[in-house]
Amino acid sequence: MADTAMDIAEVMAHLPHRYPFLLVDRIREVEPGKRIVALKNVTINEPFFVGHFPGRPVMPGVLIIEAMAQVGGLLVLEQMENLDDKVVYFMSLDNVKWRRPVTPGDQIRFEVEVLQIRGTTCRMKGIGTVDGHVVAEAEMMARVVDK
To answer: Of 16, 76, 89, 128, which sits most exposed with the smallest number of CB within 10 A?
Structure first.
C-alpha cells in the first residue's frame, strides 16, 4: 500500500468487507505506521436506514465505530508483508463516545492514529468528524492474523 490516497477499488483490494458492510469510501492520506485519514459518504440508500429509524434516519453508532475500525485495519495492514494472507481482528474498544447523530448526506472524516505497535498487536485512537464537528471517538486494539 502506498502512502497516498486510495480510491474504492484500492480499498476493496485490501479489506475483506463487501456490501453492505464495507463502510470506507476513500482514503485521503496515509502516513505509514502513524496515521490515516479516510472518508465515508452516508446516503439514504444505506440498508440500515430502513429500520434505524423510519422517518428519522440516524446511522447506528456501532456502525460508525465499525467504519473507524475498518480505517484502522487499513493502517495496520499497510505495514504487513504478504497482506493478502492477513486479516485484522479487533480485540477491544475503550473510551468510546458518540457526540452527535450522523444522518443521510453527511460525510464522515475519520482520522486514526497509531498509539502503540507490539508485534502483530496495535493500539489506535480514532476520531470521526462531520463538517468539523466530532461525531464519534474511540481507542481500539487489533491483532493481525493469518487468514
So the answer is: 89
